[in-house]
Automatic annotation (TrEMBL):
GO terms for cellular component: phosphopantothenoylcysteine decarboxylase complex. In the N-terminal section; belongs to the HFCD (homo-oligomeric flavin containing Cys decarboxylase) superfamily. In the C-terminal section; belongs to the PPC synthetase family. CTP binds at D104, K114, F149, K163, K167. The gene is coaBC. It comes from Phaeodactylibacter luteus. This is Coenzyme A biosynthesis bifunctional protein CoaBC. Transmembrane segments: none annotated.
Amino acid sequence: EQFFQTGQLLSGRRVLVTAGPTFEPIDPVRFIGNRSSGKMGIAIADALARKGAAVELVLGPTSLKPNAGQVRLTKVQTAREMYHAATALFPNMDAAILAAAVADYRPAEAAQQKIKKKGDSMALDLVKNPDIAQALGQMKKSGQVIIGFALETERALEHGAGKLKAKNMDLIVVNSLADEGAGFNHDTNKVTFLGAGNKPREFELKSKAAVAEDIVAALAELLPQRR
Ligand code: CTP
Ligand code: CA
């Protein structure tokens, strides 16, 4: 089988990657967002491209960009924009790696004009955003692979396992913010891979580029063999 594979490990494979934060507008000058830099997801897109995959990167607002020329970039701002881009692309993909830090809620309504300061307190009405991972999990056809992330501050493995199942993922990359050097705005990450039926696989603290290589290798193993 190896014999017939000409190019690299993932040549001819199409992979969707979501990365970065989403920004949810409150008014023309303010938004709800989070501290994701997109670094981990961009490193994954680059690692996939280096292995020969055709990569579609749907990227939230960040100044970082992929290095690899073969990465097709769709920039979005909000969770709903990311949802529309990802669900449109996924049917033509072999796999999706969902590294975006999607805002769970958005303001029910973005004000048309800048909101003026008034009383001593104010409340914002928030509504739930679509869950992109869950939507792709429901769309998933036989042979397609979905890898997600879970960033947790407590009971990381338990929460990760719950998300793996609820979102119909094949693998979830769990990172605990309790670990030194892991998470937002670090160049390093410490992760555990959780797959259905397998023992958790715990990795050492390493660069996000090296974690990306591990994720790409795991994806290559999960994809159905070509002949
Ligand atoms: N995710 C997504 N769309 C959302 C929320 C999450 O695609 N609206 C994806 C993330 O990209 C990640 C996985 O789902 O791959 C888990 O995200 P996480 O925020 O950890 O899980 P939630 O289900 O949102 O649960 P909570 O934030 O309450 O822990
Ligand atoms: Ca969330």
